[in-house]
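Practice problem 4.
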């Protein structure tokens, strides 16, 4: 069974107003036991798995999870890499047909934020979108040239996190600029839990169900069975040109249901005949009528778990606010 780890900061509890100590904790149901470790970073914690196991086996009653303020369990700076259009349902929404080439892009690790921290929409962004994604947290160095088979995954992947690849679509589309559009501060909510996996857990990955709602309205709901390029293949392709180290984060794509969707084919063909400035003006005029883009005051709720609860990455609740 996987072990859920929580990272916290010292300060005042969200629920009780009590003082809570910072550090790393093993979560057991509704309570958490402190991990006796000197680790400051995720990589250092992964190197101290004995301390995690001792906390998991401890007879201590622990502290109520509700009394702890969660930080992202992936510490920064680190590499944050993401896969593009990696679910069949998302490919359909995006208007792709035929074979889709595997594509990666980078996000600034400064975009990583807490699981309950507000997502801040920059003043110039009008079309803010959500993308619930499974994050793979590296547990060992993946050198350039590595070929990863399914049975090798426990060697390289230490655990999983729930993430949201928040996207400024007007920046992404008009500039064809993924790095900027997805790297603003708070654009990668991460956590609450880092689920550290045992080798036998990897056989259950395809049962993981990704769900996201906005203000209680379901928007995304798919399992990893909808994924196009699965983790072992993704790591192999990434290792053609990129080294990854312990504590680095790979976002594995989002299922269908995002606010952005491709226009109908007849409209797309007409748009292709227009000068770029007119094409984008027409496209965004139509997008302005789409009520699914995120707005000030929205609340995003996201979860990733297997139906049997064997792997459960917790619930992420992130309000949306406009930059002041």
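Answer key:
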């Amino acid at each position: 069974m996987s072990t859920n780890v929580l990272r916290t900061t010292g300060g005042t509890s969200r629920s009780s107003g009590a003082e809570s100590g910072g550090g790393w904790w093993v979560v057991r149901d509704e309570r958490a036991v402190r991990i006796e470790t000197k680790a400051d970073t995720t990589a250092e914690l992964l190197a101290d798995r004995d301390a995690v196991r001792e906390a998991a086996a401890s007879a201590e009653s622990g502290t109520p999870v509700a009394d702890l303020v969660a930080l992202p369990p992936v510490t920064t700076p680190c590499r944050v890499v993401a896969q593009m259009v990696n679910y069949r349902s998302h490919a359909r929404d995006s208007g792709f047909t035929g074979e889709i080439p595997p594509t990666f892009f980078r996000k600034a690790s400064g975009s990583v934020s807490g699981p309950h921290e507000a997502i801040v929409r920059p003043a110039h962004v009008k079309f803010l979108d959500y993308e619930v994604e499974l994050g793979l947290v590296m547990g060992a160095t993946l050198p350039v040239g590595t070929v990863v088979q399914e049975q090798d995954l426990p060697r390289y992947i230490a655990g999983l996190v729930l993430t949201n690849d928040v996207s400024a679509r007007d920046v992404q589309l008009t500039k064809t600029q993924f790095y900027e559009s997805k790297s603003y501060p708070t654009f990668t909510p991460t956590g609450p839990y880092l689920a550290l996996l045992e080798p036998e857990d990897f056989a259950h990955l395809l049962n993981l169900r990704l769900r996201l709602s906005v203000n209680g309205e379901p928007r995304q709901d798919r399992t990893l069975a909808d994924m196009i390029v699965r983790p072992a293949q993704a790591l192999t392709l990434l290792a053609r040109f990129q080294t990854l180290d312990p504590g680095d984060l790979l976002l594995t794509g989002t299922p269908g249901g995002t606010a952005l969707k491709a226009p109908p084919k007849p409209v797309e063909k007409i748009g292709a005949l227009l000068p770029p400035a007119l094409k984008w003006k027409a496209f965004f005029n139509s997008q302005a009528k789409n009520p699914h883009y995120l707005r000030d005051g929205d609340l995003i709720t996201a979860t990733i778990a297997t139906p049997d609860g064997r792997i459960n990455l917790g619930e992420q609740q992130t309000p949306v606010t406009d930059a002041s």
